[in-house]
Amino acid sequence: MSERRIWNHPILGKEKVSDTVNIIVNGKTLQAKKGEMIAAALMANGIRVHRYTAKRRETRGIYCGIGQCTDCVMIVNGIPNIRTCIVPVEEGMIIETQHGIGKRKD
Predict the structure, then answer these.
(1) Domain 8-99 has what CATH class?
(2) Nearest Cα to 6, choosing from 48, 43, 38?
């Protein structure tokens, strides 16, 4: 499990050990805590860029963190525009950086 996590928070206390799942991000297998949001798993693994904008190709990642904006959208299991801040990880989930509006893979 990544060392980029906060294991002992001054207010929330110590993080409990939890089960892990494997997710595939841009072809690379990573570990995530079972049940955590995709965005949290990516952040813990050092991934900050979730998508590139259509016009200017600018990077986007977490902004609101509550599913209200679309900055964190990615292609998840072939479906574009998935808000990664509100979707929990699942074993074997395939996650890809989205370019522009994204295209569905059928």
Answers:
(1) alpha beta
(2) 43
